[in-house]
UniProtKB/TrEMBL annotation:
GO cellular component: troponin complex
Summary of the function given for this chain in its UniProt record: Troponin I is the inhibitory subunit of troponin, the thin filament regulatory complex which confers calcium-sensitivity to striated muscle actomyosin ATPase activity.
Record has Acetylation as a keyword: yes
Pfam families associated with the record: Troponin
Species per Swiss-Prot/TrEMBL record: Liparis tanakae
Protein name as annotated: Troponin I, slow skeletal muscle
One of the protein's GO biological processes: skeletal muscle contraction
InterPro entries found in the cross-reference section: Troponin, Troponin_I, Troponin_sf
Coiled coil: 22-81
């Protein structure tokens, strides 16, 4: 580090870094093209080995049927191989994913300390949170509202309302009650 405490200066100039990046990118592109070409050549070679060119001219009907059966059997073998390879690839991908998760779990784990139960009163908690600003003791029950119970007066009022309600229902039942409701609604307009 230099005396100012800043980041150390790079020994490579910006233009040199840019040219190195460009060289790396061109090299990577060339490698990709070469790999693609190699895959195509491998594909052509494999097809040439496993699938000889067909000669259908001059074959009788029985020979054509035998050839079709042979081709179908080869197709079945290739499909089985493809299925097996796909299942292996899927299994390996799943295993890789599980191993990556295990690595992440192992890398991120730490021992949690055993916690102790601590009893703290409200005053001590406020003192710890507020520090010197906390004044006096705090009685939480003092802030509660007090409710006074009234005598049986309310009970009597409730029972009388129930009685009135029943009388009101009997009075309003039938056609007379509906007529009264209609008259009161019409008179309000």
């Amino acid at each position: 580090m230099n005396p100012k405490g800043d980041k150390p200066k790079s020994k490579i100039s910006a233009s040199r870094k840019l040219s190195l990046k460009m060289l790396l990118l061109t090299r990577a592109c060339e490698d990709l093209e070469r790999e693609k070409q190699e895959r195509e050549e491998e594909k052509v070679r494999y097809i040439g080995e496993n699938l000889p060119p067909l000669q259908l001219s001059g074959l009788s009907l029985d020979d054509l049927q035998k050839l079709c059966k042979q081709l179908h059997s080869k197709i079945d073998v290739v499909d089985e191989e493809r299925y097996d390879s796909e299942s292996k690839v899927g299994k390996h991908n799943k295993d890789i994913h599980e191993l990556k998760l295990k690595i992440q779990d192992l890398g991120g784990k730490f021992k949690k300390p055993a916690l102790r139960k601590v009893r703290v009163s409200a005053d001590e908690m406020m003192r710890a949170l507020l520090g010197s600003k906390h004044k006096g003791s705090m009685d939480l029950r003092a802030n509660l509202k007090s409710v006074k119970k009234e005598d049986g007066k309310q009970d009597k009022v409730l029972t009388s309302e129930v009685g009135d309600w029943r009388k009101n229902v009997e009075a309003m039942s039938g056609m007379e009650g509906r007529k009264k409701m209609f008259d009161t609604a019409g008179g309000a307009q």
